[in-house]
Amino acid sequence: MGLGSDYKLVDRRAKPDPASEDGALKAGVYKTIGAAVKDGGGAIVLLPDVYEETLLLEGGEKIMSLDAARQSLAEAGEDLPAGGVDATVTILGVSFHTITLLGEASIVGVTVQQRGPGSWFAVVCAGGNPSLERCDIDGATNSCVGITAEGAEPTFVDCKIHGSFTGAV
User: Fold this and answer.
1) What predicted TM-score, i.e. pTM, was given to this entire model?
2) Which of 30, 75, 89, 153 could form a disulfide with 36 if both were Cys (CB 3.0 to 4.6 A apart)?
3) How far apart are CA 35 and CA 25, in angstroms?
4) Helix residue ranges per DSSP H, 47-102
């Protein structure tokens, strides 16, 4: 149970595994959220940082902050990295929608911001039944959240949605 088998860890500052001869990262560790998603999704734990990425989540990915992972992956116990004083995880989009959801993905304990020029959403639900829990969703241009497909039914639990000049949803 643990890193690589139960969850993936995203650490922008990850160093190569000293045991690796080719300078690869430790198994289960990624420098970007996108790389972790492309490598099969599943439970993805984000270390506190600002991740400037745009994401397409099409499956059952579960993206969570380290704090959220401590609750969700309690059985991983000591395997999770130690947290710092500032445990904020921010996914920042500066072009296109920050996160596009097309399936049953879930996002827990993360700040999602859209700061690029144009009419982009911080989160757009283009299908499925994704869930966002304890997230701070902040859009500076278009609405913070866009629901663009008939039948799409996202769930928001204890989320703060703010910052848009055209409306929250």
Assistant:
1) 0.90
2) 30
3) 12
4) 66-72
CA dist 167 and 84 (Å) reads 34
The DSSP output letter for 52 is E
Question: Coil, strand or helix: which one is 116?
Answer: coil
Q: For a pLDDT cut of 90, what percent of the chain falls above it?
A: 56
Q: Which pLDDT tens digit goes with each residue over 94-121?
A: 889 999 999 899 999 999 999 888 888 9
Compute, in degrees rounded to 10, the torsion defined by CA atoms 95, 116, 88, 33.
0
Question: CA 47, CA 81: separation in Å to the nearest integer?
Answer: 8
Q: What is the pLDDT of residue 78?
A: 58
Which of 71, 72, 153, 160 shows the shortest CA–CA distance to 112? 160
The answer to whether residues 49 and 12 touch, using CB atoms and an 8 Å cutoff, is yes
